[in-house]
C-alpha cells in the first residue's frame, strides 16, 4: 500500500474527491455571509447539502481497498482537513492521500472564492499540481463496492465512460413547453435561486463542443477524465472557464466539465462506452430499512454494482443511518480497520 509507483496498469491513475464539512463554523459563516447578499435562500444552498455524516471515511477506505493501483487520492476542499488525515499521516500514507485547497486550483480566479458550487470546482480539478493525465473524479458520497481494475476506467489511453445517448432538451416537446412556460412566469430575482438539473448541464456541455442533437447522458458514477483534454480546451476558451467558475452556487447557465471532457474524448476517439458496471444509487432519506436491505442484497447478487452513491444520509432516520453504516462496515470496512490491516501486513 505504501508503494505509490507500483501501477499494475503501467501508467499512473489518480482519484480526485471533492469534500466539504458543512458543520465547520468557518464554512457555515462563509456560506451565510454569501447568502445574505442574495436576500433569499436558494434550495440548492440548504445546509444539509454540506453536512458531513461520517460516510466520507468509507469513500477513502473503498478507494484504498478496492483500487490499490491508484497512484494518489486527492481530497479537494476549502480550508478544511478531514479528521482521519491524522491517521493517514501516522501510517505513512501522506503522499498517497493528499488534501488540496480551493485556493490552489482557483489560482487566478480568487475573486470567485469562496465557492459552494460543485460545478465550479469540477471546472478546475485538472489544475491540481502533479495530477496524473488519467484521473477519476467522484463526489464524497460515493464508495467502491467491489474490486475494480484500471481497465474499468481507462483502456489504451482512452476513457471508459458510462451512459446512454439521449436527445438534446430543445429537441423534446416537453422540454420546449417547460421552457416556454418558464419564460412566461419569469425566473425570479436571482438566477441562483433555481435548482439546476444535472441532465441539462450535461446536455449543455455536449452542445458546447458540437453535439447539437444528442448527448451521452451519464448516470451518477465515478467519472474518468483526461487532464490534457480539459487543459487544451480551456487554453483556447479561457472565457468559458472564467464564466463557469464565476457562480458561487449552482446555476442553470453552467455546463459540467466532466461531461464536456467526455464528449470531447468521444469526438477525438479517446473514449469508449461500456455500461457493464453500475451504480447502486441509494436515496437514504426516502428508503425504509427493509427497502434498503432488499436493494443492497439484490445489488450484491447481480455482481454489477461496483459503485455506491449514498444520498440523503444526513436526512435519514436513526435506524436508516445505523443500517447504512453497518452495511458499509461489512461491504467496505472502516478506514481504521484498513490501516490496521496494512500495519499487520507490513510488520
TrEMBL record:
- Domain (Stealth protein CR2 conserved region): give its ranges: 49-157
Q: Which domain of life is it from?
A: Bacteria
Coiled-coil stretches: none
Report the protein name in the record.
Stealth family protein
All copies of domain Stealth protein CR1 conserved region, residue ranges: 11-38
Give the organism, scientific name: Salinispirillum sp. LH 10-3-1
The UniProt entry's GO biological process terms, in alphabetical order, are: polysaccharide biosynthetic process
Q: Looking at the keywords, is Transferase present?
A: yes
Q: Which InterPro entries match?
A: Stealth, Stealth_CR1, Stealth_CR2
Instruction: Extract the GO molecular function terms from the UniProt entry.
Output: transferase activity, transferring phosphorus-containing groups
Matching entries from Pfam families are given as: Stealth_CR1, Stealth_CR2
Q: Which family does it belong to?
A: Belongs to the stealth family.
Print the keywords alphabetically: Exopolysaccharide synthesis, Transferase
Amino acid at each position: 500500500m505504501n508503494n505509490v509507483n507500483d501501477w499494475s496498469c503501467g501508467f499512473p491513475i489518480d482519484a480526485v474527491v471533492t469534500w466539504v464539512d458543512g458543520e465547520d463554523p468557518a464554512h457555515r459563516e462563509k456560506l451565510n455571509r454569501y447568502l445574505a447578499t442574495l436576500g433569499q435562500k436558494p434550495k440548492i444552498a440548504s445546509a444539509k447539502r454540506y453536512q458531513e455524516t461520517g460516510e466520507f471515511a468509507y469513500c477513502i477506505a473503498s478507494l484504498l481497498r478496492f483500487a490499490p493501483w491508484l497512484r494518489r487520492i486527492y481530497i479537494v476542499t476549502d480550508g478544511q482537513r478531514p479528521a482521519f488525515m491524522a491517521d493517514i499521516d501516522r501510517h505513512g500514507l501522506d503522499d498517497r492521500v493528499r488534501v488540496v485547497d480551493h485556493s490552489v486550483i482557483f489560482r487566478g480566479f480568487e475573486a470567485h472564492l469562496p465557492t459552494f458550487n460543485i460545478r465550479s470546482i469540477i471546472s478546475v480539478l485538472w489544475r491540481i499540481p502533479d495530477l496524473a493525465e488519467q484521473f477519476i473524479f467522484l463526489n464524497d458520497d460515493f464508495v467502491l463496492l467491489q474490486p475494480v481494475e484500471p481497465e474499468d476506467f481507462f483502456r489504451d489511453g482512452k476513457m471508459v465512460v458510462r451512459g446512454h445517448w439521449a436527445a438534446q432538451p430543445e429537441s423534446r416537446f416537453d422540454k420546449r413547453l417547460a421552457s416556454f412556460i418558464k419564460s412566461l412566469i419569469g425566473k425570479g430575482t436571482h438566477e441562483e435561486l433555481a435548482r439546476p438539473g444535472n441532465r441539462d448541464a450535461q446536455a449543455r456541455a455536449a452542445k458546447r463542443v458540437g453535439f447539437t442533437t444528442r448527448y451521452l447522458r451519464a448516470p451518477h458514477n465515478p467519472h474518468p477524465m483526461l487532464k490534457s483534454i480539459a487543459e487544451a480546451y480551456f487554453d483556447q476558451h479561457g472565457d468559458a472557464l472564467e464564466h463557469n467558475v464565476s457562480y458561487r452556487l449552482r446555476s442553470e447557465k453552467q455546463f459540467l466539465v466532466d461531461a464536456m471532457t467526455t464528449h470531447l474524448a468521444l469526438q477525438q476517439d479517446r473514449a469508449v462506452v461500456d455500461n457493464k458496471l453500475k451504480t447502486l444509487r441509494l436515496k437514504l432519506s426516502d428508503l425504509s430499512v427493509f427497502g434498503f436491505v432488499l436493494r443492497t442484497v439484490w445489488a450484491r447478487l447481480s455482481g454489477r454494482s461496483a459503485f455506491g452513491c449514498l444520498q440523503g444520509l444526513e436526512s435519514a432516520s436513526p435506524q436508516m443511518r445505523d443500517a447504512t453504516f453497518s452495511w458499509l462496515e461489512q461491504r467496505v470496512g472502516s478506514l481504521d480497520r484498513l490501516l490496521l490491516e496494512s500495519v499487520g501486513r507490513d510488520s
